[in-house]
Structure prediction request, 423 residues.
Amino acid sequence: MNILLLGSGGRESALARKLSQSPRCTQLWIAPGNGGTEAYGTNVAMSPLDFEAIAQFVDGNAVDMVVVGNEDPLVAGIYDYFENKPVLVVGPSKAAAALEGSKDFAKGFMNRHGIPTAAYETFTKDTLEAGCAFLESLKPPYVLKADGLAAGKGVLIVPGLDEAKAELAEMLGGSFGAASSKVVIEEFLDGIECSVFVLTDGNGGYRVLPVAKDYKRIGEGDTGPNTGGMGAVSPVPFADEAFMQKVEERIILPTLRGLAEENLTYRGFIFLGLINCGGEPKVIEYNVRMGDPETEVVMPRLKSDLVDLLEGCAKGDLGDIPAEHDPRTAVTVIAVSGGYPGSYPKGKEIAGELNPASSIVFHAGTKRDADGRLLTSGGRVLAVTSYGDSIADALAHSYEALGHISFEGMNYRRDIGRDLMKL
Ligand code: AMP
Ligand code: GLY
Prediction:
């Protein structure tokens, strides 16, 4: 099977590696890919949002299946664009992708289908006063969410009421552009988060992939601003059988039933951002793709053939295709550019051992220059994944490997997984 993978981050590196390991993968292209994805396939300089160029490439290269890494093409409707063309696309339809593309739609969907989530209301410029009154009815801290896609930055958690009201006015005034023309205000939920990934074929067939936890803040001890993700761990000790049974009964099955009832075509990955509130799972958010950096631990823990699974999804019949989990622990630690998530320099040369014996180094923000030198080209630069018998064991390998890699300004968190080791 000839496969085209769209995206350029650490997530796509991990998907590319897993796809390339399948005996069913004949050719793999990654568009646009990064400085490391050529180890698994061929990079193609093409934007994941340029559907016409993608269609031409698909025709010209006899691509059988398109796998979409990031949300933007899905929310923009790539599934629908290719629906009547002779190529499989893994993902949700544009209408279903609104589960990620609109927080208001996602909250409404959860309410319609009785899926546990934080209480909420949605406001616009015309209902600012009602929004302020709603804030007054809530306990601090206050959670304000831009309705639309805001590159992972559209959620504010504000300690004070006056500050929350001021933020609401700013958001509705356009501080996140069109994404915040509607703002969801919701009850703050206290607990530990985890990410659950489900593959669905849109016809009742589904598989639950390994559960992961990511580390979003830049600073150790979960301090400082949010990032795209500084590390991840899988499995998650508190996501035990009893917890996962609740997730399946109260969240996964009602979500799949809801999609069917609302005629929302969905043949791909569903990412459930969950929070464990005293043993009770609640949904913080839906995403319509895999997580990054979670994929860098989830794919290494998937023992089964990803091409079989994705083909089953895209054809609408997962049948009895297995999704076996590796019992080992996997962790990933992200090396980021100095200054990230604020402004940071690019073009720093990356030196050291990028193929260590005991770890997998996934590239994220890297590129090769004309002379083949490897340079930084983004905030998150590398994801260093390792297996172990425990979180501590796996981490020791990743930190050892990071000790042999360097670039100017390189930064990473030394406390990934530490909170889970205490549980
Ligand atoms: P989201 O983009 O919706 O995942 O939100 C980003 C982050 O904000 C989440 O990963 C949580 O850490 C936090 N968050 C979002 N909603 C809530 C909530 N209702 N209560 C507590 N934390 C939240
Ligand atoms: N790691 C969270 C995300 O991919 O949105």
The mean pLDDT is 96.
